[in-house]
Amino acid sequence: MNRIVTGIGLAGLLASTPALAQTNDNAPEALSSAPELKHDKKESWTYIKPGLNLAGVTAMQIEPTAVYRGADAQFHDVSEADREKYAVIMTEALQEQMGKSFQLITRPTANAIRLKLTLIGASKTTGGLATVSSVLPIGLLTNAVKSAAGKKGTFTGSALVAVEIFDSTTNELLAAAVRREVADALDISATISTTETVKSIASAFAISLHNRLLEAKSRKP
């Protein structure tokens, strides 16, 4: 594959939403790209292959979203069944968005990238309380401020996600990032349950990544 795109372009691609505070500053140790990831700020790590260019990419291989198994996973009291369910939601959102602009493939192909998402952690939404806090006047005001700052709404959960981009034929790591993703604090539907929160996060993440990839493709070497 012809490797083209500037680091600035991919840096923007991988910075989909602001990060939240976290308890440690180490990249997830069991992630394959961990040795390459550089710490940006709390709960934010990035790697971009120097001189990378994605302008020639026309197809994409999307792996099923993996549930992280490392000892430093951050799922707290989220059940195994729910972790798997959230991973499927993430994959489906990616397939829906990426299929609009890229040929979706199932095997290595020239001029293609392989996209892998890993769900590293998730925190629960407190259904009912999250919704009430979003519609009452004081809660609405608070969440409006949080929305403007890119922070999650009161009593609303979040997801810690890693995205890794590989050359489809050589399996070379082209870019990777770990980010804490949150639903818009003013998205009322995301306050109903953790599943709805993850759906909102997955959709926004897929749209942002899709748009950033298109921007990267359009850049001239």
Q: What is the overall number of helices?
A: 5
**What order do the helices and strands follow?**
HEEEEHEEHHEEH
Largest sheet: 8 strands, mixed
Structural class: alpha/beta
Question: What attributes characterize this protein structure?
Answer:
33% helix; disordered N terminus; 221 residues; 5 helices; alpha/beta
3D architecture notes:
The chain has five helices and eight strands; from the N terminus they run H-E-E-E-E-H-E-E-H-H-E-E-H. Strands 1, 2, 3, 4, 5, 6, 7 and 8 form an eight-stranded mixed beta sheet that branches. It has 221 residues and is α/β, with parallel strands linked by helices. The two termini are 14 Å apart. The radius of gyration is 17 Å and the shape is globular.
Q: How would you summarize the topology of this molecule?
A:
Blueprint: H1 7-14, E1 38-41, E2 44-48, E3 59-62, E4 66-67, H2 80-98, E5 103-105, E6 112-123, H3 129-135, H4 137-149, E7 158-167, E8 173-182, H5 194-218
Parallel strand pairs: 3-5, 3-6, 4-6
Antiparallel strand pairs: 1-2, 2-8, 6-7, 7-8
Helix pairs in contact: 1-5, 2-5, 3-4
